[in-house]
């Protein structure tokens, strides 16, 4: 009996130990973000520096995975809570604005300050500024293995030619051991560059989907041909399979975003980064979606805290911090002055990355984009499965997108 | 007699072979996790199917403890899981007993309502739960999480205890009561020890619920200092480039306490009930 | 003089109250909230200012044409649940029977066989997904090398993708039933087996007439809840099929709800769908409980 009593006592003691909610401290700033591991390390270093300069302020950064961040922030903000700053890709802005959980920023910063930024870094929606970015990118580009390819293709025809030369079946088991090109081609985001290359785009100025057109039909057929006609792409490839093949040196080229390039270097592949090729028949460059990642302010924020948060933002967005980040991570900064530094200007990967960004199109921030992804995905995969023709799929994508947008906006 | 021995030896042999092959198939994916944790360069998949990769390294394991607060996550999780386990066992042992022994007003409804708590997809309960916890001041505290986890694990545990109590004949308590024992004494000293196997299951299940839960913890815990293991593991995940080596190494380590707990509790997975104690 | 009956009743309520307070607080309030939302138009445009609009969301659940159809997903969910639970229980009980014997190395087998349950699901589910890869996965390699059959395009075809999810989930779920069965076997007095031995009963007769019936009260809660949990298990289907691929056809009801609610912010619709799922499960359990007479005692 004594033993049981002891255990119960310890139990209750521990229980009370566990409840220690932090009160609302005006000198404590909280940031929620979805930064990659290497970006997080840099952020921590920046925050440490800031807290050394301002010893009375405490800044805490909490990582949440992108989707968890989106839904978690929505839930928290609606309940009147949440962090002071939320950091993420620009397409978060659409739904956040509609739900009224972020603040307009244009009145909080002087105009000549905002002019110092690359215009792509300032995300406006419905006439107001909602996010200021410190990194520009999230864009796809052509990454190639310098051991297998010395000059990257500049047109689609060259892509196919180079691909065919590299795709070889060494041991005669009817399956290529090296592929010309691998990438996560079953996901619409990774198809967009070819869609734009053939002349298409996802929505018009009224935020209506524009998916039923020649460009889409030609684009879909092109992807099919890469796999079935020219056979330079594996039959089944998702993100991890493509990643595996490229890291093992079993693929000449991969189409992947700027978040992945460092991991290929770490895996020992001598990579080159090149902008995506031009489609010869249209004369257009394949344009991936480009998206800034930046900070927005929670609309639930305390008025007194606002000035402290703005001060923190000035620091995090400063040229010095951005230069350091760009140097360490090869990401494109948003302050124009960073490009004055020699080592940034002359970095080969950064140069090509910037070129790709300039050829890219900004990712729409409107909530309708989600509906469009959800409409494209099943139909796109149906084409790859041979269940639908490109013509039918284009029509169905358009129809489904309109339907889903209506459902979302009821 | 010889024939009988031969037969049973043959049966035993076949059983062993079957069991071994089955076990190997079952742990094959786990072995793959070992490979991933030893593989450098952050690779989830590999065309090389060897178990120990050619360039194997313990880097991931080392990184886990030196570059991430893995140890802190373990301590946090152990704390939360321990509290949930104890409270789960106490509450379920009591409630299950009531459900088993007594017919009272509203019993059927009570049992049903236990079940119904499991039928709602958890993701739908997040928003109202968050609002409620905010109003109670339980956000970002372990008390909030412990309460939610207990509520999640209780329905099954109560049902389980009840089912097991049902297999213990009431004649045992009746004998004790006749001898002058109180209701509680009969329950605590006589019936409960016999229900040890069910307590094992309750403890194991409660522990697992708290040890591996992510969704609720992600919503309620806002402080990195308070992170439990599932939140920590999730931080290895990135939209596209997860840290697979760390993830696999952590997953393997995370399963060790559960296995140890199971082995320790297995001691009580013995039959305490014999018909003999009821005779006469 | 307090009557015996009253004393007994107070004792019971004291035993039950702590548990029920916790449950009511944590589960019932969100539950009611959800029911209310299901009658509302809560979505992207009406996130704080939603209003009650009657049964319209329910109408949409049943009659709105969606890809795929509600009824197709419903049937798939039932198949998913039945197949999974059947294998969980069969494998679990069989293993428990074997591991209850005093065989050498019993602890090691137990320890290894509980691993699928003990290990965090995320990486393991993705590992399974990798094993189903057409060109590089272990499963096709074994099929082609040792069985001389052509490789299956697991993740590209809806039926095969569904099968892949089922296989993964069976692997994940049988240890749980095995543990429950191991516990339940302890409640069966040895004398019953000895008596049967004297009567010359064979092993399968003993299993059929002694073991299985007496395992019932312990297994039934696990099976009932196992059915409910499997019905609602979003994780595995989501991870192995990468969110419903191919073409959104690998879904069970909950993964579909998740997509509706969190991708397109249609909270009212998702709430209605959740309530429908709930009622389906409730009706099922009522029938199941009645059939197995589980709320009563057995001795």
Structure, explained:
The complex is a heterotrimer of chains A (410), B (280) and C (299). Chain A is of the alpha/beta class. Chain A is 44% helix and 16% strand. Chain A folds into 2 domains: 23-138 and 291-362, Periplasmic binding protein-like II (D-Maltodextrin-Binding Protein, domain 2), CATH 3.40.190.10; 140-287 and 367-408, Periplasmic binding protein-like II (D-Maltodextrin-Binding Protein, domain 2, 3-Layer(aba) Sandwich). Chain A has helices at 2-17, 37-53, 66-78, 93-98, 111-114, 156-166, 192-197, 214-228, 239-247, 261-266, 303-316, 319-329, 342-345, 348-359, 368-384, 390-408, and strands at 28-33, 58-63, 85-89, 122-125, 128-137, 140-145, 179-182, 251-257, 271-274, 278-279, 284-285, 289-297, 361-362. In chain A, helix 2 runs antiparallel to helix 12 (319-329), helix 8 (214-228) crosses helix 16 (390-408) and helix 15 runs antiparallel to helix 16 (390-408). The longest helix of chain A is centred in the last third of the chain and has 19 residues, at 390-408. Chain A is globular, with a radius of gyration of 24 Å. The N and C termini of chain A lie far apart (63 Å). Chain B has 280 residues and is mainly α. Chain B has 2 domains: 2-57; 65-273, MetI-like fold. Chain C has a domain at 69-233 and 278-292: MetI-like fold. Chain C has 13 helices and no strands. The two termini of chain C are 33 Å apart. Chains in contact: A-B, A-C, B-C. Chains A and B meet through helix 1, strand 2, helix 3 and helix 9 of A and helix 3, helix 5 and helix 6 of B.
